[in-house]
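Handover notes (outgoing to incoming on-call)

Open items:
1. S-layer homology domain-containing protein: sequence verified, structure written out, both below. Nothing else pending on this one.
2. Nothing else urgent.
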Amino acid sequence: MQLSKAAADKGYVIIGSPVTFELSITRAGEAKIVDSFKTFVKRELPLPAGSDPAGVTAVVVEPDGTLRPVPTEIVERDGRYYAVVRSLTNSAYALVRSTTIDFADLSGHWAREAIDDMAERLIVNGYANGNFRPNAAVSRAEFAAMLIRALGLPQTGEAMSAFTDVKAEAWYGGAVGQAAAYSLLYGGSDGRFRPDESITREEAFAVVMRAAKLAGIQGVTASEDAERILLAFADGAAIHAWAREDVAGAVQAGLIQGSGGRLAPGGAVTRAETAVMLRRLLVQAGLIRD
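S-layer homology domain-containing protein structure tokens:
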């Protein structure tokens, strides 16, 4: 009942029964549960016979009944559909089907298809008034939350011990903690994360490439290659030294493209651009199908 309500609250219905995957290692007769992995582990969940695969995705069922998205690809084999799930954690999984998503302010928007897909996957959310606000700038906290959802990681982490300006009770605290634990997002030398500041394009590009490496995409291996890639853009020289190899890697991997021959590294990243970047990350890493 709790699970059905959690799904209904998000506009989803549960398909079938949850399935629990557990991995343990036995040493000297003592079994130890392995809760997390360094690489994505593949599992398959069969859809109930005769089920329509449209709008179906997999979620992790947390102990409190809340739902967490995980990268999901629907495949057909021998006349039956399966949800292929790739995850960095052991979990109980369920299949859910979304209701129709129709954000009021996306008519004719260039990123509508990507946004709708990511919303169906529970990775991006709209607002209570039915809008998505695609052109709004994204804060560092918001980017961390969307990134962690895209990777299927729990929204839990010790952010309060990592950054002086992230409180335990903050809605983004767990996501920031996870992003820091996986070395995806960093704070400043003063120990602050600056959660409410808009994330710059340079920061977002570098973070997406770090996530891509976690998902198995190879980065740029030589600084000479990074320079060649970046200097193809009119403002490539403006990329800071700390970000150059990751930003070049993101370009090389097809995760970012720039606009008009420019990367605009100091500019803000919009909600639409974030949805598109994260979707490209999942597709290029083979975690979902285009």
